[in-house]
């Protein structure tokens, strides 16, 4: 696919895929509604319109919201009711949420609306798609969601832009009043009717969008971490025998087998592994080297579980009340974010532990008492030069931060809405801290890469594996400098970070050994 002009994403009644979310959020793919989605929208709206015409109160259609649901709202105030819920709930504060997250949020709310289970008119769904296609991204703030009753404040800021109110970022990246951006794009503000304001707010779309984005990033990082672990094992003259498939078959965790297989392929043909230990013969390598597949593999299996949860959510229609296939409109609790919140927290734990073991390997490379012949801190002239001493400090600071971020958000709950909403998931908070954890993990892996490549180049006279040679050539071409006297280190670390972040590390290794897992 041409990522500059990705194929349009068609939204139907059966949900979307993770690839669809990535295409819209990151690659700005256009969005189209399928004919079956338009039919389902019309059918669902007929049910809501029929209920609105009846004298009996129906939650979200002819009542107030949350603890105010006891009041019946007459027909003359219902449009105002829907406008008011959007305006009052657009109460976010703090820094802006990233563009890709907001686009995922917009798209996933459209996904649920397109199911026909929310009772929203087809023209509202078409307006949501048009806003995405125009590149108009509402300003959403960091704080305002408890992960229950939906990501209320974030989704409200999106709905506000649909109404032509609040602020948004235009396709040029400039923040302006949403009404101006709609006019320039030839779009009209939406006039909300019965239930529509509520339906635009009542979903777990923000935390789900961040879960999908994090899973995509972690999938690449687990492979990158396998490569850097292999490079460190090689630089430490370690044994690759612990990576043999028969050893991992007797403990049949699929992630562990995948990580071991990746490391073994990267090390194939190495002239360093297991053959140059005369100075200090080793029966076994340290845990951080020997157990690398077990730790990274457990993270891979955690990621697989998170992807299963994400797939289920991507096929879901989350709203309250919801229009059922038989025409009933029923209240429910499907907006509770617990299923998503738990895996967001679980991934933060896995990311922190992967970072922790990578930092231990880096420290081993720098310690002359444990590095089997490498100079202290991989310095050019130890004592005159400090080498990578403080690069490990930076790595340790990142890992320490990740350990704090691994404290679960989903075990917390603060009651809200006059005790009507007396248990919440805090899934949005779990998602926000996971994004930071993934960002930090990228940097941790980059520092291990920087140390391992320098160490390998200091093993004079020994031949690295073909995959290692390919990585060394690519990382040096990317501006990450090799051994030598002390210099301004931050630019090298930034270049290494970019090398990992863009996927160039995995690409370089795969040029020598083919696709990795």
From TrEMBL:
<feature type="cross-link" description="5-imidazolinone (Ala-Gly)">
    <location>
        <begin position="148"/>
        <end position="150"/>
    </location>
</feature>
<keyword id="KW-0456">Lyase</keyword>
<feature type="modified residue" description="2,3-didehydroalanine (Ser)">
    <location>
        <position position="149"/>
    </location>
</feature>
<comment type="similarity">
    <text>Belongs to the PAL/histidase family.</text>
</comment>
<dbReference type="GO" id="GO:0019556">
    <property type="term" value="P:L-histidine catabolic process to glutamate and formamide"/>
</dbReference>
<dbReference type="InterPro" id="IPR024083">
    <property type="entry name" value="Fumarase/histidase_N"/>
</dbReference>
<keyword id="KW-0369">Histidine metabolism</keyword>
<comment type="pathway">
    <text>Amino-acid degradation; L-histidine degradation into L-glutamate; N-formimidoyl-L-glutamate from L-histidine: step 1/3.</text>
</comment>
<protein>
    <recommendedName>
        <fullName>Histidine ammonia-lyase</fullName>
        <ecNumber>4.3.1.3</ecNumber>
    </recommendedName>
</protein>
<keyword id="KW-0963">Cytoplasm</keyword>
<dbReference type="GO" id="GO:0005737">
    <property type="term" value="C:cytoplasm"/>
</dbReference>
<dbReference type="InterPro" id="IPR001106">
    <property type="entry name" value="Aromatic_Lyase"/>
</dbReference>
<dbReference type="InterPro" id="IPR005921">
    <property type="entry name" value="HutH"/>
</dbReference>
<dbReference type="GO" id="GO:0051289">
    <property type="term" value="P:protein homotetramerization"/>
</dbReference>
<dbReference type="GO" id="GO:0045548">
    <property type="term" value="F:phenylalanine ammonia-lyase activity"/>
</dbReference>
<dbReference type="InterPro" id="IPR008948">
    <property type="entry name" value="L-Aspartase-like"/>
</dbReference>
<dbReference type="GO" id="GO:0004397">
    <property type="term" value="F:histidine ammonia-lyase activity"/>
</dbReference>
<dbReference type="GO" id="GO:0019557">
    <property type="term" value="P:L-histidine catabolic process to glutamate and formate"/>
</dbReference>
<dbReference type="InterPro" id="IPR022313">
    <property type="entry name" value="Phe/His_NH3-lyase_AS"/>
</dbReference>
<dbReference type="Pfam" id="PF00221">
    <property type="entry name" value="Lyase_aromatic"/>
</dbReference>
<dbReference type="GO" id="GO:0009800">
    <property type="term" value="P:cinnamic acid biosynthetic process"/>
</dbReference>
């Amino acid at each position: 696919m041409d990522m500059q002009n990705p194929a349009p994403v068609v939204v139907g009644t059966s949900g979307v895929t993770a690839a669809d979310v990535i295409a819209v959020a990151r690659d700005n793919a256009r969005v189209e509604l399928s004919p079956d989605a338009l039919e389902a929208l019309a059918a669902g709206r007929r049910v809501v319109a029929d209920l609105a015409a009846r004298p009996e109160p129906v939650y979200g259609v002819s009542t107030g919201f949350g603890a105010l649901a006891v009041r019946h709202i007459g027909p003359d105030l219902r449009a105002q009711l829907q406008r008011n819920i959007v305006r009052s709930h657009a109460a976010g504060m703090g820094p802006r949420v990233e563009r890709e997250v907001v686009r995922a949020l917009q798209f996933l709310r459209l996904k649920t609306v397109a199911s026909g289970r929310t009772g929203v008119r087809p023209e509202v769904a078409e307006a949501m798609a048009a806003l995405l296609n125009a590149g108009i991204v509402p300003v959403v703030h960091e704080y305002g969601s408890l992960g229950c009753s939906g990501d209320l404040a974030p989704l409200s800021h999106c709905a506000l832009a649909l109404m032509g109110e609040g602020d948004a970022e235009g396709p040029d990246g400039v923040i302006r009043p949403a009404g101006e951006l709609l006019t320039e794009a030839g779009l009209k503000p939406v006039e909300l009717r019965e239930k529509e304001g509520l339906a635009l707010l009542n979903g777990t779309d923000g935390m789900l969008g961040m879960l999908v984005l994090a899973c995509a990033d972690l999938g690449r990082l687990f492979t990158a971490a396998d490569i850097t672990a292999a490079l460190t094992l090689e630089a430490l003259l370690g044994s690759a025998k612990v990576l043999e498939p028969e050893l991992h078959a007797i403990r049949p965790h699929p992630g562990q087998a995948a990580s071991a297989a990746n490391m073994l392929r990267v090390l194939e043909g190495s002239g360093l592994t297991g053959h140059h230990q005369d100075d200090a013969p080793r029966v076994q390598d340290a845990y951080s080297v020997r157990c690398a597949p077990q730790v990274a593999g457990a993270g891979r299996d955690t990621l697989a579980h998170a992807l299963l949860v994400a797939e289920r959510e991507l096929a879901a229609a989350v709203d309250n009340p919801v229009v059922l296939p038989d025409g009933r409109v029923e209240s429910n609790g499907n907006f509770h974010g617990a299923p998503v919140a738990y895996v967001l927290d679980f991934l933060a734990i896995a990311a922190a532990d992967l970072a922790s073991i990578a930092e231990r390997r880096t420290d081993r490379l720098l310690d002359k008492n444990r590095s089997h012949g490498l100079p202290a801190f991989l310095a050019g002239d130890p004592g005159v030069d400090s080498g990578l001493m403080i690069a490990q400090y930076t790595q340790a600071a990142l890992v320490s931060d990740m350990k704090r971020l691994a404290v679960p958000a989903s075990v917390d709950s603060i009651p809200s809405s006059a005790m009507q909403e007396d248990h919440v998931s805090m899934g949005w908070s779990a998602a926000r801290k996971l994004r930071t954890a993934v960002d930090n993990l990228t940097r941790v892996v980059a520092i291990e890469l920087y140390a391992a490549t320098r160490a390998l180049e200091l093993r004079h006279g020994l031949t690295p594996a073909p995959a290692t040679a390919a990585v060394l050539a690519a990382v040096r071409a990317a501006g990450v400098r090799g051994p030598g006297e002390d210099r301004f280190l931050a630019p090298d670390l930034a270049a290494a970070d970019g090398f990992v972040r863009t996927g160039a590390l995995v690409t370089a290794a795969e040029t020598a050994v083919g696709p990795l897992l």
